[in-house]
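FW: tagging you since you asked about this chain on Friday. Here's the raw sequence from the shared folder, copied in full. Didn't touch anything.
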Amino acid sequence: MKIFTTTPNCQFTSDVCQYLKASPANMSVGHFSDGEIKLEVLDNVRGKDVYIIQSISPPVNDHLMRLLLAADAMRLASARSVTAVIPYLGYARQDRRVRSRRVPISARLVADLIESAGFNRVMTVDLHSDQVQGFFHIPVENVFSSSLIIEHIMKLEDKQAIRIVSPDVGGVGRAQAVAKRVNNRELAIVDKRRATANQVDFMQLIGDVENKNCWIIDDLVDTGNTLSQAAALLKSHGAKSVNAYCTHGLLSGSAVNTIDDSLLDGLFITDSITQSVRSNKITTISIAQLIAEAISRVNNNESLSEIYQC
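HL: got it, structure written out here
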């Protein structure tokens, strides 16, 4: 087994390798003067099972291109298998044409590119929607990180005072799985209508949150505007506290300031996207051990279902 990353000195990859008791393999990544990416695999990978760790996060297109070029290099170097370990799969939000609008289904196109580059398998964390798995013709391991926040919630909160909240109708399944593990009680839903991407036009609450410690469960946080409005809505309906768990912390633009200025008591994200965040309200939970366990099980042809807690 060989573990690579296309991001030099990537702390997440180092953490994964530490759990696997392995060392990151060597790859040289640079640019030509015109901006083209140049990449070279410096270790022998002939007959090896290769795992390339790279989130498709900002700069999105640069990271995607690095991933594709690395796969082609591994294939031409006669690697036995090449697995893309993509903690955050960028473009996954663009997974359908709403009301037949003239837009691309970008998630499907990215899936086609990943397959064409030569990958044999994809491993990712908390896909935006399950249907994205159907865009691939190769195995997709969608690792759920919810077990980490469930363990955290159970240490902090009284079971009877917890209310799990879905930030939209589409996320009900994700939130419901967490609610079942936490207290097996009813769920609250924030019904929202978007005017455009990242802009909520209308929001209402379905369910009772009075005197409850609310936990919003979502796959990602981008600008933070939706979480900020949802926290205000929940507090206006009597919620004692409002925390959120969002697997992927994009935190674009002034998102950190938006979170800090909101009624949200705390935001928990994972290290699927590498960044340095300075905020008293934002806490990072590492998924390196979870990914390392998944890689180990795949490499040893063992079942992954035991680590799928939700």
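FW: The radius of gyration is 20 Å.
HL: agreed, and The chain has a mean pLDDT of 92.
FW: great, closing this out.
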